[in-house]
Amino acid sequence: MTIASFIAKNALRNKRRAVLCIMSVAVSLFLLVTLLVALREITVPPEDIGAALRVVVRSRISLANPLPARQRGILERIPGVEAVSPFSWFGGKFKNEEAMTFAQFAMDAKLLRKIFGEAKMSEAEYAAFEAERTACIIGKITADKHKLKLGDRIQLESTIYPCTAVLKIAGIYSGTIDDRNVLFHHEYLDEISDANGWVGTWWLKAKSPEDMAPLLERINRTFANTSAEVRAETERAFQLSFISMWGNVKILVNSICSVVVFTLLLVTASTMSMAVRERFRELAILKALGYRRRELFLFILAESFGLAALGALLGVGGAWLFYTQLDISKMTSGIFITFEVTPKIIGTAALVAAALGILASLAPSLAAARMSVVDGLKTLD
Fold it and tell me: In this structure, are 295 and 353 located in the same domain?
């Protein structure tokens, strides 16, 4: 018998206990990976290709405060600005849905390609969207979900404005990070609502990456000490400002992760302690045969580490396979767009498993080291 087979036989001596231990590690690490991926998706939202050149200008007081439409001409004259479009959240309900599963924004349709160039449609669809005042474009995910096609009309009852928008689908776009939204003409919003002369936010495109930092400062300085002061920020910063409204999600998720790991440590340590306690007589015989304390410690460590490694393989590998094959956007009704198990998260879970294997072996190893040969031989199996 080799040392490896000796360790394996000891680890699997009580097969039910070994399987339960492995499954406990697997399920806990699956949950840990899920929480870490969810935290990453919430706190580090994905970016579109063109986000590096986009600037969002909103009210300095609050995002809920509208901005005067007369600001557009001033913004267009600021050095470094290539294009400026109003961008107002409509907040419409579709087919009396309790919750909005896709967002709707009013903008300057003629600037769609210049500001949001990653939205892919045919030339005919772009032309139809620009030409018709009541036209809209819709993301492919939403179109597929509600079985909508070109030429269909959708009705959106706004929760922000006292009006209902009736829009004709002129195009179905794809290729963005979030292919769910509806975009329509801001002129039409001005016509059907009482918000004429006001916009929710301004979305700008900078001429080059080098213009971004000075452009933000110029915009804020231009409207300083006016009746409608603004805050200019990158699209990335704008996204993260929404996340901050949720409170400190990071502390909450990390606390849950800590509880999961601590509970898993207790389960693994308890399993190893029982397994070693049952073999005190055998360990005493090994001592009598000349095996030293560090060798017995390595036997126990290898056994503990092996069980943790098998659990990690099932849990972490299963999580990677599951979330790679799963349509997370459909499963979560659009709450998560992507759910990527990154190498960093896999590495973190693997380190947790390795630490569990080591820590769980400490207590039984110390007990075996302190045990004398005589006391060990007196132990009943």
Answer: yes
